[in-house]
Design goal:
- By secondary structure, the protein is of the alpha+beta class.
- It has a single domain, classed as Jelly Rolls (Sandwich).
- Helix content is 19%, strand content 31%.
- It has a seven-stranded mixed β-sheet.
- Strand 4 and strand 5 form a beta hairpin.
Length: 155
Amino acid sequence: MSRSKISLIVVVIIILILAILIWPKKIKPDQNYLSFGETNIKIELADTPAKQELGLSGRESLAQDTGMLFIFDKPGRYGFWMKEMRFAIDIIWLDSEWRIVGIHYNINPSTYPTVFYPTEPAQYVLEVNARWTSQNNIATGTSAIYIPGKEVPTI
């Protein structure tokens, strides 16, 4: 076998090893995720007006390390409330570049009809279980990556 073929095989093996080590853990290719560095969260998409109106209302709970991602066609100061919610959540607003521009922590259903807004325009809003953000050191300014890397649907 020639030296160039051996070199090529070694390079391919190194690339495969690096891809395995770098790719976020616990990712299933048929599901949607947001990655905040080493922290991944499985997401359900609220990408239609009907899904956005319903949101998490009426549910008893949200699975651990799961969230609902609201997708809007353009940045804005979208308000969220706790109408018909049965558990507390954190609300995370992200701009069009997937950078966190606002967070409201541990919002209880008893806050309804208060409406919560970001301080800056956002294009995406992520609802997660209460305290998930602080438990995972997620803060304003943190960037997210949409996985599996497909184009995010728009409404």
